[in-house]
Design a protein that fits this description.
Elements (H helix, E strand, L loop, with lengths): L3 H4 L3 H35 L2 H50 L2 H5 L3 H43 L1 H7 L3 H38 L1 H6 L3 H53 L5 H42 L22 E8 L11 E8 L4 E5 L6 H7 L8 E6 L2 E2 L5 H7 E4 L10 H5 L8 H10 L3 H4 L19 H15 L3 E5 L7 H15 L3 E5 L3 H6 L2 E6 L2 E6 L1 H7 L2 H9 L5 H4 L8
Parallel strand pairs: 3-8, 3-9, 6-7, 7-8
Antiparallel strand pairs: 1-2, 1-4, 4-5, 9-10
Helix pairs in contact: 2-3, 2-5, 2-10, 3-5, 3-10, 5-6, 5-7, 5-10, 7-9, 7-10, 9-10, 14-16, 16-17, 19-20
């Protein structure tokens, strides 16, 4: 039933396919009757002309049936493909709505498996198996009606095996469903291992861990094979029982019908047509049982797909969003903000009681020991997570009252590890504003000191950077990320250790680009380099989730607290006269 809303837009095609299916099934059911007439004409009446006409009639019947089969097969396949494509888009769109916390709790390969393997099972049901199910139902019902009309005594014999088949399908189907879900889970785990290894291929190869990754992937595949073999065993037993009972029923009908022919109560043609109907019914029951098996597998896949579709994002738009005034001023306020990740123990806080007011255009740097909550604090502003207690305001409005799109358009982020896509340089810069003209894109690149190296690439701005930008150096990737932020032109900027782990030349170029980017913007810096820290109007020191120090660089050094200890620990010469020349990491 949950699939019906996705199929309903294509109901006209379904109706036409249904009509073609009914007509095709009716012609199929007419075939044994034609065979009966043909045999009786040949063996009892000796009418050769009638025999010829019947044979030509059969050819015409098969021609019409073939055309109807094409119509219903094409229409159902087209409906299934379109419905499944819509379901894939819907699932992908729902995944894009999920906050980062959702992906932190799930492996990418598992989610990819739901988009591919699980929906692939549903595609088979929609495109092919529903048609076969409907055809076999029509054949079964029509065959039983015709059998009853022709010879009620033989009908009871032919249907004697049906209860056994139905009970077997019910018993084996439930077990197949459980096993199939297990198979899908194990395939998803194997996919996740492969995805992880591919994404970290340099690390895998640099530590010579290819054998370990092969072993890890092989273990998951072996587990999936074991589960699949259990499924094959259950399915094999089921179809063995089904085949045995069906053919025993046919043999018994043939025996009893033969006795009726010998007694003169049944013609040879009627016996053959009756036997054909019996085979039709047996085949229909077997096909329905097979469909039930596939249906149970599809139900397991559907549960995994709809589990995501019916999961509400923990971060979403408000029911009645408040409009963000334009232009955005950029005042950011943290009012008694506390936060803990889902699943953390009660009382275990990542951030606790944060109070902070950043004026429009002010540059504030956040420093402190690793694990103190710096990056988490910056991630709360664009609502990658929602605060547990307190609230965050942008221009006096609680960010939870704003549309996510409006909020995130106002906030730009330059991460420590820039995220590039596998397209061209131009496409990566334009990701901030796809509609921006090429002239603005190149101006942003010049502002980020990216234009000079981009023009030296083989195809300039149209050079493909590779997955995650692997064809570029770290400094080049960072400058493209800054160009993207320049093109976005946000009112509030978050720099998450944007100059860490870079060589001196790249750092100098990026620092110069950031200098231009910061002008007139409210900026929150997760600081790592001294030059970045000294640019800030204020420094905040966060330790164990709390703001423990606040002031300028000089004030905090003179105070002799955590910041001073971190600073002195990193510099050989703490003399203020030489501080200006230092470029090594502050912490």
């Amino acid at each position: 039933m949950r699939l019906w809303p996705r199929v309903r837009p294509y109901r006209r095609g379904l109706v036409l396919a249904g009509v073609a299916l009914v007509l095709s099934s009716a012609l199929g059911l007419a075939f044994p009757q034609v065979v009966r007439v043909l045999l009786d004409a040949a063996f009892e009446q000796g009418d050769r002309a009638l025999l010829d006409r019947i044979a030509l009639g059969l050819v015409a019947l098969f021609t019409v049936q073939a055309f109807l089969n094409y119509v219903q097969a094409y229409l159902l396949a087209a409906t299934g493909e379109r419905a499944v494509a819509g379901l894939r888009r819907e699932l992908f769109a729902r995944l894009l709505e999920m906050p980062p916390g959702f992906f932190a709790e799930r492996r990418t390969g598992e989610l990819t498996s739901r988009l591919t393997t699980d929906i692939g099972l549903l595609q088979g049901v929609l495109s092919h198996q529903i048609a076969e199910f409907s055809r076999q139902i029509l054949t079964l019902v029509g065959g039983v009606v015709l059998l009853t009309w022709m010879q009620p005594r033989l009908t009871l014999t032919a249907l004697a095996v049906a209860p056994l088949v139905v009970l077997s399908a019910a018993a084996f189907g439930r077990r197949l469903r459980r096993i199939t879900v297990g198979v899908q889970d194990r395939v998803a785990e194997a996919t996740a291992v492969a995805e992880e290894a591919f994404s970290q291929i340099r690390t895998v190869q640099s530590f010579v861990q290819e054998p370990a990754e092969r072993r890890r992937y092989g273990e998951r595949i072996a587990s999936s094979v074991d589960a699949a073999l259990r499924r094959a065993h259950v399915r094999g037993v089921f179809f063995g029982v089904l085949t045995f009972t069906s053919f025993c029923g046919i043999a018994f009908v043939l025996w009893q019908g033969g006795r009726l022919v010998l007694e003169g109560d049944l013609t040879a043609g009627a016996l053959v047509s009756f036997l054909l109907y019996t085979i039709y019914i047996a085949a229909a029951i077997g096909a329905l049982a097979s469909f039930f098996s596939a249906y149970q597998e599809a139900v397991g896949a559907a549960e995994r797909v709809f589990e995501i579709l019916e999961t509400d994002p923990t971060v979403s738009d408000p029911a009645v969003p408040v409009a963000l005034s334009q232009p955005v001023q950029g005042r950011v306020t943290f009012e008694d903000v506390s936060f803990r990740y889902r699943g953390d123990e009660e009382g275990s806080w990542t951030l606790r009681g944060i109070r902070l007011d950043i004026a429009p255009g002010e540059v504030v740097a956040i420093v402190g020991p690793s694990g103190g909550g710096k990056t988490t604090l910056a991630s709360l502003l664009p609502r990658f997570w929602d605060v547990t207690e307190g609230r965050i305001l942008l221009d006096g409005i609680d960010v939870r009252e704003l549309r996510l799109a409006d909020l995130r358009r106002a906030v730009g982020i330059v991460p420590q590890e820039p995220a590039l896509f596998s397209g061209t340089v131009a496409e990566n810069i334009a990701y901030a504003r796809p509609e921006a003209p090429r002239s603005q894109l190149e101006a942003a690149a010049r502002a980020a000191h990216a234009d000079e190296f981009v023009r030296q690439l083989p195809e300039g701005y149209d050079t493909v950077v590779g997955e995650r930008g692997v064809k570029l150096s770290g400094g080049q990737r960072q400058r493209i990320a800054i160009a993207r932020a320049v093109l976005k032109d946000p009112a509030v900027l978050v720099l998450d250790e944007a100059t860490s782990s870079l060589d001196t030349e790249s750092e100098q170029l990026i620092e110069d680009a950031l200098e231009k980017l910061l002008i007139g913007r409210t900026t929150l810096i997760i600081a790592h380099r001294l030059s970045t820290v000294r640019r800030a109007d204020r420094l905040l020191v966060i330790d164990r989730g709390c703001i423990v120090e606040e002031g300028t660089h000089a004030e905090l050094v003179a105070r002799g607290g955590i910041y001073s200890r971190l600073y002195l620990r990193q510099f050989r010469d703490p003399d203020p006269a030489t501080e200006r020349e230092e470029t090594a990491p502050a912490y």
